[in-house]
Amino acid sequence: MKVLLSGNEAIAHGAYVAGVTMATGYPGTPSTEILETIVKYDEIEAAWAPNEKVALEVAIGASLAGSRALVTMKHVGLNVAADPLFTLAYTGVNGGLVIVSADDPGMHSSQNEQDNRNYAKAAKIPMLEPSDSQDAVLLIDEAFNISEIFDTPVILRTTTRVNHSKSLVEVDVERVRKEETYEKNPQKYVMIPAHAKSRREVVENRLNALSEFAEQFRGNRVEWGNRHIGFITSGVSYQYVKEAFPDASVLKLTMTYPLPRKLITDFIEQVEQAIVVEELDPFIEEQIKIWGLSVSGKRFIPAIGELNPDIIRGSLADKEDDALEESEALDIELPGRPPMLCPGCPHRGVLYTLNKLKLVVTGDIGCYTLGVLPPLEAMDTCICMGASIGNATGFQKATGRKDVVAVLGDSTFVHSGITPLIDAVYNRGFTTVIILDNRTTAMTGRQDHPGTGKTLKGYDGPPLDLEMIVRATGIQSVKVIDPYDLKVVKEAIKEETAKDEPSVIIFRRACLLVERPNTKPFMVTGACNGCKACVKLGCPAISWKEKRAQIDPEICSGCEVCVQVCKKDAVVEYAKVDRGAGI
Amino acid sequence: MQRSTGAQEYNGEHMISVISDVKNILLVGVGGQGIVLAADVLSQVLVSAEYDVKMSEIHGMSQRGGSVNTMVRFGSKVFSPLIDKAKAEYILAFEQLEALRWSDYLKPGGVFIMNTQKIEPLPVLLGKARYPQNIDELIRGKGINLLAVDADSLAEEAGSKKAANIVLLGCLAALMPIDRGVWYAAIERRVPPKTVDINKRAFDIGYDLTSKPAFIV
Questions:
Q1: Which of residues 481-540 of A touch B (CB under 8 A)?
Q2: Which residues are recorded as binding [4Fe-4S] cluster 2 (chain A) (predicted)?
Q3: Whole-angstrom Cα Rg for chain A
Q4: Interior angle at CA A257, CA A252 and CA A260, nearest 5
C-alpha cells in the first residue's frame, strides 16, 4: 500500500520497520515530527531528552546494550551532541545507532545555516541523504545495516524540504526483530587513551572499508541521459536537477560520506562537463577536486540559502539555452507578514516592560525571540540555546552595568540554562535571570519537558522544581510572578536588577495554546484618545484605525494586559457593553 | 495513471525523457486559516486518483500568524516538491494580501481563486504600513482571470466560519476532473467527525459556485 507521508513521518515509519526500540531527541524544526510520529508505536521507547547531548548519550547506552537506537535533532542540536558523537565514532556500536540531523537551508526557522555534512567528515562516520520520503524509509533501513556491519554510528542528514514535504511511500513492510546481547568490552567502550589509540586505527580502517562499500551501494546510482552535462547531486537537490534538466545525465549520491571515488571518476570521464549541484557548502565538490578531477559547482550554484529548479536553471543559463522567464514585478511594496506572539501570550507583558525599562536584554531561543521585532523591540542578543545567561554575565562583568537581564524559556533553561546560572553565582555575577515559564516547549509545537513532568509517552511524573533548582545553585532571591500583572512585573524587575547579587524571576503562566483560561474578550470604547499605548503591545487583536485603537473580539483572549496600559479606561469587557447605546 | 517514486528506480540505466504532465496547485494564506488541512484533503484526493503527488509546506515560525504557503504537485511522475514562479495552474488564496504577494506564481491562463478575507499583518496593525486597496483589481490588471469568493460568509451559511478553507477547496474541486465522491471521502477522513456535515455543506457551496456556467475557465 502506498500512502502520502512527510519525510519525518517516513523516517518514523522506517525506524519502526528497522526494529528500532529506542528513539530520543530534543524538539527542533524541522526534525520535531519524527519523535511525535514514532511515539505511536508501542514497541518503541520514545522520549524527549532535556537536550541533544543527553538524547545521544541515552541512545548510546541503548545501542551498547544491543538495541537499535534513533536520535533526532535539528542541525544546531548536533553542536550540542557533538561531544559524545566524536568519541562514539571510536567506540562504535553494538545495536545500530542512527543520528538524524535535520538541516535548515534558507533558515526557515533557525539561527544559522550550518551544513552538517561536515560533521560526518569531522567525526569520520558514514552519512546518508534521502531525496524524498520513500528514500527516507529505505535509507533508515540501510543506515541501521551499515551501522551494525561496519560498527559505526551513521548520520542520516535531511533538509527542511525533505522533512516537511510529503510524497508517496510503500508502507507494507514487516518489522525487523533483533536479539539483544551485551558483552563487556572495555577495550572498545572505555575510551582511556590507551584504548582510544587502538580504536583510532579502527576508525581509519573502517573509513577505507566504507569507501569500498560506497562504490557498490545501491543508493549511489547513475541515470544516463544526454552526456553534454553530467550532474552530481544528492538530497532534495537531486529532485530540482531532474526537474530543471530532465534530459541530462545524473549521478545521484545517497551516501555522501565517504564518497565513491571510482563511481564519480567514471561518471565524470563519460560526460562533457560535470557539475555538482548541492545546497550550502561545496562538500562534494571539494572532495572531487582533491582527487584532481575536473568538476565545477559553486562557480555557478549559490552557496547561500535553498536551491530550487529556477535557481539551478538560472545559474546555468549561459550553458543551456534555457533562459529564465522574468515575470512582471509588482510596482507597489507589499507589507511583510512577520510571525507574532499570539493574542494573550504570557510573554508579551514582560517583553513590553523590559522595553519600557530600557534594559539590555540578552535573549535566547524560543517564541519570546519574536520580541526583537517592533513594537516590543526587547532583545539585544540571540545566539544559541541557553546563551542568554552567560551573555548577561559577560556583558555585566565587562561593563559593570546592572541594567542587563537574561531572558529564556522554561524548556530552554532546562536544556542548557542551568550550568551558566551556576557560573553566574560561582563567579560572583550579579545578573537578573528571567525565566518565562509557559509550561511547554512552545515554538516547536508545544512539547512537554522535565518542567512539566509529562513524558512523550504520556507518563505523568513529578515536574522539575525550577525554584529548587535555582536555589540549589546558590541564588538567594527567587520570585515567582504572574506575567499578566504588569505592575508587579515592573516592580519585580526593577527590584532585582538593583541588587548586587544574581537573582531569578520566574514569570509563570501556561502558553494559551496549552491551557486556555476562562476569560472573555475585550473592546475599546469611545473614551480612547488615540495615545497608542495598547498598540505598542504588538497584540494581533489590537489594530490602529482612524486614529483610534480597536480590538478584534474574535481573537482577543481577555488577558487584560492592554487594560492595564490604557490611561483612559477605554478597554472594557466586550460582553458587558451595551453596544446599542452608541458609546 | 502510473505512479512511481525515484527511490525505487535504482536499476534505471537510461531514462527516457517525456514531456511532463505535472500540474501545480499553490495554496497561500496566513497561519491558522486551515491551509494545511485543505492541502491534506487535496493531496489525499490526488493520491486516490492514482497520481504521483508531492506536497511541500513550511512549518515553524508560520505557526505564529506568519505567511503560509503549501505547494501541491501531481502527475505521472513528480520530482521537485516546489512550484517555480509563473508555473502554477491553480492558486487558491485564503487571504487577499497573500493572494497579491503570490500572484506572480500563476501560469498565464491559470485559475486564481481568492477569498475576500483580509488579515492585517503587524506593520498594518501598528499603523506603519497600509494594507493595499483594491487587490482584486490589481490582480486582474495583470491579465489574471480572478474569482473572488467571500468564503467566510459562505462557510457561515454552511454552519461554521471555520469551514472557509473547505468552501475554497470546493471551488477548486469543481474545476478538476475528479468525482465529487472522492472529495467527500477525503473530507470525511481528515476533518473532525463532528464537523463532517458542516464541511461537506461548505464543500458543496464552493463546488456549486464554480461549476455554474457563468464561471468558465
A1: 532, 535, 538, 540
A2: 539, 556, 559, 562
A3: 27
A4: 60
The tens digit of pLDDT for each residue in A127-180 reads: 999 999 999 999 999 999 999 999 999 999 999 999 999 999 999 789 988 788
Residues A489 and A529 in one domain: no
For residue B120, which residues of chain A lie inside 8 Å, CB to CB?
543
pTM (two decimals): 0.94
Helix, strand and coil percent figures for chain A, each rounded to 5: 35, 20, 45
d(CA A236, CA A215): 21
Rg of chain B over Cα atoms, rounded to whole angstroms, equals: 18
Residue A252 near residue A234 (C-beta atoms within 8 A): yes
The count of C-alpha atoms lying within 13 angstroms of the C-alpha of A581, restricted to the half-sphere facing its C-beta, is 6
Considering the domain architecture, whether residues A68 and A93 belong to the same structural domain is answered as: yes
- At a CB cut-off of 8 Å and minimum separation 6, what does A344 contact? A512, A519, A556, A557, A558, A559
For residue B213, cis peptide bond before it (omega within 30 degrees of 0): no
Which is it for the CA torsion A510, A511, A515, A520, positive or negative? positive
CA gap A498, A502 in Å, rounded = 10
ipTM, interface predicted TM-score of the complex: 0.93
Q: Which three cell numbers stand for residue A423?
A: 557560573
Task: Give which of A167, A266, A539 to mutate to test B binding, by max B Cβ within 10 Å.
Answer: A167
- For residues A114 and A257, give the distance between their C-alpha atoms in angstroms, rounded to a whole number: 17
Q: What is the CATH number of the domain that holds B147?
A: 3.40.920.10
Using CA coordinates, name the residue in chain A closest to B95. A337
**CB < 8 Å to B86, chain A:** 325, 327
Give the domain range for residue A469: 347-508
CATH number of the domain at A541, please: 3.30.70.20
Domain-ending residue, one of A185, A216, A247: A216
pLDDT in tens, A227-276: 999 999 999 999 999 999 999 999 999 999 999 999 999 999 999 999 99
Consult the annotation and say whether A534 binds a ligand: yes
